[in-house]
Design goal:
Length: about 130
């Protein structure tokens, strides 16, 4: 299983975003306020069920590969906007399937996720990131 390098933030994808010719999302000016459709508490509870993942009540997390798997380690934090999840920061490395499971735990009911490459400041659809790691 390929190991992905992560220096990313997860956000809910606004419905009026569009892909440019490089596959990056072009976002409306109000993109940061797009509703998530998932509470901070529900997302934290869901990721807490992932094997090998440790959470704190403030939203911080550490996740290690299980014995016998290719080695990876991911750190991050969930952030809230009132009761709703606002965004998730992730740093480190993680295998693609495990990262997809984490994405599923925090994905809201309103829209798909988008991934921000923090180093370049660009956004991608979650499936594009998982398939091609832009």
């Amino acid at each position: 299983m390929p190991i992905l390098k992560c220096e990313i933030s997860l956000h809910t994808q606004p419905p009026d975003s569009a892909r440019n010719d490089r596959g990056e999302l072009e976002l409306p000016t109000n993109w940061a306020t797009a509703p998530w459709g998932r509470t901070f508490d529900d997302a934290l509870a869901a990721i807490s069920e992932l094997p090998g993942l440790y959470t704190e009540l403030d939203g911080s997390l550490a996740w290690n590969s299980l014995p016998g798997e290719a080695r990876w380690q991911l750190f991050g934090c969930l952030y809230d906007r009132g009761a709703e999840l606002a965004y998730v920061d992730l740093f480190g490395t993680c295998d693609r399937d495990s990262l997809a499971r984490l994405f599923a735990c925090v994905r809201g009911s309103i829209a798909p996720l988008m991934v921000q490459d923090r180093g370049r400041g660009v956004f991608f659809d979650e499936s594009d990131f998982l398939v091609g790691q832009k």
